[in-house]
Amino acid sequence: MTDWLTRDQRSRNMAAIRSTGTSTERRLHAALKLLFPRRKIIEDADLPGRPDCYLPGMRLAIFADGCFWHGCPTHGRIPEDNRDYWQPKLERNAVRDRGAILELRRMGIRPLRIWDHELRPAAIDGALNRIRKEAQRPMLQGRRRPRHRSPHLGAGDKPGPR
Ligand SMILES: [Zn+2]
Questions:
Q1: Quick count: other Cβ atoms within 10 Å of Cβ 143?
Q2: Of 1, 47, 50, 145, whose CA is between 20 and 30 Å from 108?
């Protein structure tokens, strides 16, 4: 692979994705720069759900989702204290997330959700592989969608919080 980043940029990005002091959003961005050095990456894109990173050339929208707020299957749980407050709030988040995913798909954009825990330095290689794999899948064809598809999340999606 041709390296389009300078050695210096590359090592700075490597350091960023390995550092515990970097926010998950920054780590995601640094990881994408390493994977796709020539691609334009828009942060906090003005798209449904406000993806943390959007790669317009690949029509790939990536979310760095907090395990608590977005109900990660491993770490997402409703706090026992103040359950009446948290439960509807977290459920609303989940509904909003699903709506954004569907809306993006309708626009011909491929959404990819990466959990916070996947962006931890020790786990980041798995996240990179997941992003790479998604980027290699054939792109959706514009707004067209097969009619037989039900409006559910595809098999590759993370299950909801419940
Ligand atoms: Zn998690």
A1: 9
A2: 1
Q: What is the pLDDT of residue 132?
A: 93
Predicted TM-score of the model (pTM):
0.78
What separation in Å is there between the alpha carbon of 1 and the centre of ligand 1?
32
Whole-number Å distance, alpha carbon 23 to ligand 1 midpoint, is: 15
Could you tell me the distance, in angstroms and rounded to a whole number, from the CA of residue 101 to the centre of ligand 1? Answer: 19
Tokens of 87: 């439960």
Sign of CA dihedral 36, 41, 45, 50: positive
Q: At what angle do helices 7-18 and 24-35 cross, to 10 degrees?
A: 140
The backbone torsions φ and ψ at residue 53, rounded to the nearest 5 degrees and listed phi first, read -140, 135
Distance in Å, CA 2 to ligand 1 centroid = 34
Are 61 and 135 in contact, with CB atoms under 8 Å apart?
no
Distance 145 CA to ligand 1 centre (A): 31
Strand-pair partners of 113: 63
Which tens digit of pLDDT belongs to each residue from 119-144? 998 898 999 999 999 999 887 655 45
Q: How much distance in Å is there from the Cα of 73 to the middle of ligand 1? A: 7
Domains of the chain and CATH, by start: 7-136 (3.40.960.10)
At residue 154, does pLDDT exceed 50? Answer: no
